[in-house]
Design brief:
With about 350 residues, the chain is mainly alpha-helical. The chain has helices at about 1-30, 30-70, 70-105, 110-125, 130-145, 150-170, 175-200, 215-250, 250-290, 295-330, 335-344.
């Protein structure tokens, strides 16, 4: 169970680190206005990427059941259809999002320099939005294909690329906020494009991209089955956006910057639980398709014990790291540091 779920957990953590690393470099090398801009627009970008989680988790469960029933060709058809729909839908969403970025930032309360920075960062990230969605889809399908460690390596490479380019573009070349955005785009391109090449050619996994047909019933079941993950991600991003709107009214840029630091850690903590859900879902689906009732009950009880232990541990860790974390992100501003630490 841990062999399958741990790579997914680490994958989700690295995906979350994209925004965290951007924020870290922007805050320390560009300034708190740009840092606030990243935090203000980031929930919007996460909302747009949620579609990938829906297709990934919902689709991998169906593909897992189909594999468990011994219907490998049909499983590949479903897999291919969902990847192609994500690709086309992602391109459409990315184009529309680029045009909508300015009015959305205004609704969130951005004005003046903050508005300019929000639009700049958001529009640059729209370049790789489709790849970000595909990366979220493939995180689940790598597990269904019994290649969780390959999926982990792809995301680690993408994450490390983002970190190194953040250092180069922001700290060394001084490209500012645009440099941080370009670094994230490069990381997401790797995370979204490499799996297409892997699954598009003959490989040693259970899945391969190929010819397919439109299966409306399967698409509907995918959306229905993945709607829980969609709404979990969507609701948390919407709540973050609403918090930012209120913080802009009552605490200004400092409030958004402080809340952003807290949310970065929250993203990483929550990624542990999302990663476990994504990693375990195809296992559950396979045993459901194979009608292994005893193993399903075993998986459920083990999962409850693991999640309960992690929840208590993370609460304790959160209390211990509040001060060093606030120092790391906003230690250059005493007032912002105190606000962040007390909020955490």
């Amino acid at each position: 169970l841990m062999r399958f779920t741990m790579p997914s957990i680490v994958m989700l953590i690295f995906t979350s680190i994209y925004g965290v690393v951007d924020g870290l470099f922007v805050s320390n090398f560009v300034g708190k206005t740009s840092f606030a801009a990243v935090n203000l627009i980031m929930p919007v970008l996460m909302i747009l990427g949620c579609v990938g989680f829906m297709f990934g988790t919902g689709g991998s469960a169906i593909v897992g059941i189909t594999l468990g029933e011994g219907k490998k060709e049909k499983a590949n058809e479903y897999f291919s259809m969902l990847v192609y729909i994500t690709l086309v839908g992602g391109l459409i969403i990315a184009i529309l999002s680029a045009f909508a970025m300015r009015p959305v930032a205004i609704i969130l309360g951005a004005r003046g320099e903050l508005l300019k920075n929000c639009v700049l960062y958001g529009r640059i990230l729209c370049i790789s939005l489709t790849c970000f969605m595909l990366q979220n889809v493939f995180q689940s399908f790598f597990v269904a294909a019994e290649k969780p460690h390959l999926g982990l390596r792809v995301v680690v490479i993408a994450g490390v690329t983002n970190m190194l380019l953040d250092f180069l573009f922001v700290a060394v070349l001084h490209w500012g906020l645009a440099g941080a955005a370009i670094a994230t785009v490069c990381g997401e391109l790797i995370g979204g494009i490499f799996p297409i090449f892997y699954f598009g050619h003959k490989n040693s996994s259970l899945l391969k991209l190929g010819k397919t047909h439109f299966h409306g019933r399967i698409l509907l079941k995918t959306c229905t089955n993945g709607s829980s993950e969609l709404m979990t991600n969507l609701s948390s991003s919407v709540v973050n956006a609403l918090y930012n709107m209120q913080l802009m009214k009552f605490a200004g840029e400092d409030g958004v910057a402080a809340y952003g630091t807290i949310m970065y850690v929250n993203f990483i903590f929550v990624s542990i639980f999302f990663g476990y859900a994504i990693g375990s879902a195809p296992i559950v689906s396979y045993h459901y398709g194979a009608n292994n009732q005893d193993e399903l009950k075993n998986l459920f009880h083990k999962s409850i014990r693991l999640i309960g232990t992690w929840a208590v541990s993370l609460f304790i860790i959160a209390q211990l790291i509040a001060t060093p974390l606030a120092t790391l992100f906003v230690g250059y501003d005493q007032g912002l540091f105190e606000l962040t630490r007390s909020g955490f």
